[in-house]
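Quick one: structure tokens for this chain, please?
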Amino acid sequence: MSSVLNAVYNNYLTTYNPKNLTRFDTHKKSELRNVYNSIVKLNKESPWYLPTTNKDTQHYAVDLKENARELHNTIAHLGGLEENSIFSKKSAYSSNEEIATATFIGSKVPEGASPEFQLEVQSLASAQENLGLFLSEGKVDLPANTYSFDVAINDMNYEFQFSISEGETNRDVQDRLVRLINNADIGLKASVTESDSRSALKLISEATGISVGKTQIFQISDSHTSKTAGTVAYFGLDYVSHEPSNAHFLINGEEHSATSNHFTVGKQFEVQLQGITPEDSAVHIGLKTDMESLTDNVLQLVGGYNDFIKAASAYLDTQTKSQKLIREFGNIASQFGNSLESMGLNLAEDGTLAVDKNLLRQTAMETDDINETFGYLKDFSSSLLRKSNQVSLNPMEYVEKTIVAYKNPGKTFVSPYNTSAYSGMLFNGYC
């Protein structure tokens, strides 16, 4: 049963709309109870609808919920879950963003000296690369049959089966294997590389680095596969042309290593390595000034709002009620239109917000009272947060549905999962 559930959630994460998980995606029992009670209240008077079976509509509903969650997390990341904390989040800077970028993830700045450190990058974490044999464009030198090979990656084993027909060329089979592996989305990227009229399969892991006790990220073999063996040796799939390696760097002169080029430092900074520092040249990472941090926070809020509007707009041609959603968000922005314009935020015709960065920075620098000057922006953020929670709670509100019956007023009954029909959409292919 656990393997089936893993397959379901893997399908959800890779098929619908993969988003990064944050600390705001974990909840207390009381928060989950409030969500349940909200669903019960919402459904108490709602009519009954026919189930939504159209695949595109189901994809839209799940995608809508995920984008609402992403907007919620963007506002929460800026401190929007607490009224007095919105836009108070500090921003990090890097003295050389070509070498490393940084994000401040601390809940608050420690009293006393502002946190900072020196970073020297000695090597970057790299992926594993397997390069197959370069074969001619002639016919494949394997008998027509059904073949298979096994891939071990991320503590999972996958078997790939495919057929080779009479008269097929090496390139035909290579192209088919590229599609087969890439569509499986197991953490490998396949491609065909060419040299001197010959072609070879190239497999590169999405992950980098080596965990303790391991030497490779993935392994390919057909020694114990269920179908005919022989393709691993013929195409050279098991040849490791580039071993994976960890990142090595110095923090304030102390040696460190990581399996990824993205890591955290002291639960205060997220660091993304981009390059190697020149000899005797360190990157300084610290916190920006309050005015710079405030400007960054506003830009991040606008970016999250625009991403949501653009995601909803992608369904305008196929989902008629997506226009309603965009209009409702536009109405929220219009309520604060004059105040937003005074600080450099202008509502465009497509519902997104355009930013005049110079006016925004000038407003932040010239204000004597940040809470008063940016008070309307805080109210705008609070309105967006409430709306994103509403969409996340019931994305089916923006799906075209056929009403079956209205409930008898005054004699309603609880149907808490009516608005959550989208959750069943995740399991349709497995039940």
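The CA atoms of residues 372 and 378 lie 10 Å apart.
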